[in-house]
Specification:
Elements (H helix, E strand, L loop, with lengths): L5 E5 L5 H16 L4 E3 L10 H9 L4 E6 L1 H5 L1 H16 L4 E6 L31 H23 L17 H7 L11 E4 L3 E11 L2 E8 L6 E4 L5 E3 L1
Parallel strand pairs: 1-2, 1-3, 3-4
Antiparallel strand pairs: 5-6, 5-9, 6-7, 7-8
Helix pairs in contact: 1-5, 2-6
Length: about 240
Amino acid sequence: MPANLEVFLCYAREDELLCKELVVYLAGLKRQGFFDVWYDREISAGIEYEQENDKHLNTAHIILLLISQYFMNSNYCYLVEMQRAIERHECGDARVIPVLLRPVYFQRAPFAKLMPLPTNKKPITDSSWHSIEEAFFDVAEGIRKTAEELAIKLSINSPIIPLQASSQPVGLGASRLAMSRNHQYKSGDKVRHDRFGEGIVLKSEIEQDIEFLEIQFEGINGKKIFSLDFSKLEKL
């Protein structure tokens, strides 16, 4: 079986060791031709990080979300990579699989509707596993089965062929390249959102060249965080 599919790993920096261990378990399947594996440590020196990362996020056939408290806390993982992955999943362009690394509440997250790995829904670091190797093997087997299903469904052959391509530039890279590194919003700015109405910007932060806003909307308890790459806000 030629390596036709690509698996993309989305993870928080705090989980890098677990991510690398998963890559080791997937390497055996890669050698047997089930798929190629890509994550950001594959980026060579001198290559533009955002552009290369976005290219693979927008063309991978299987996207793994490595779920932990760190993933849920990361604006970049949760509001950018995960949102783009879910968009591609819902369009049928990719298969998104949450991989539970550590115990964390995620039942109201957009990916909660998707069947996760391990198959027993216990995080890889859960003490109920006989060994962490058993947990990683369970995850690798689940990914292998998904890859076999996709290969049959898509009937694709070498070389790697990205799924449905848009005639327009798709993904995060184009918007980021066009975006200024300067803040577009500042604390105290008034904004309007189609769903939540009018609010006030409490904080603006730039992470990975993307601006994130913390906003307090009128009549709504709690603050909300938005990414300017995806959120439609009107400055008042």
